[in-house]
Amino acid sequence: MVDCLLVSLDLGSDFHELFLVILDMIEILFGDIIVVVFHVFELILVMLHQIIDMLIFTLFDFVNFDFESEFEFSLKFLIFAFIVVDQFLLLKI
User: Rounded to an integer, what distance in angstroms lies between the CA atom of residue 19 and that of residue 16?
Assistant: First the structure.
């Protein structure tokens, strides 16, 4: 009778340990699911952030903040063209 009681206690502790292992596996599974959900949420936020960046960059392209420097470059190019034409005319004479 004592042997039967010891065997049942041993089996009880084995089942208790098995239950705890299964519980840990379920917690790990739920943790993995939460990580995957957060990763998908992060991907969606990154895609939205990139779309907003592209919209802002196109707005900057239409606004063209470097207009003054482009105007100065065009003016210098026009002066250079006049100088080149003047030098060719000077060389022909």
Answer: 5
Identity (one letter) of the amino acid at 14?
Answer: D
Residue 26's φ and ψ, nearest 5 degrees, are -65, -40
Q: Report how far apart, in Å, the C-alpha atoms of 59 and of each of 55, 63, 64, 85 are.
A: 6, 6, 9, 39
Q: What is the pLDDT of residue 89?
A: 82
Reported as a single tens digit per residue, the pLDDT across 27-67 is 877 888 888 889 989 988 888 888 887 777 766 666 556 56
What is the residue-wise DSSP string for 27-50?
A: HHHHHHHHHHHHHHHHHHHHHHHH
Pairwise CA distance, residues 4 & 79, whole Å: 109
Q: Give the CA count within 13 Å in the CB-facing half-sphere of 42.
A: 6
Per DSSP, helices labelled H in the chain are 2-63, 67-92
DSSP 8-state secondary structure symbol assigned to residue 12? H
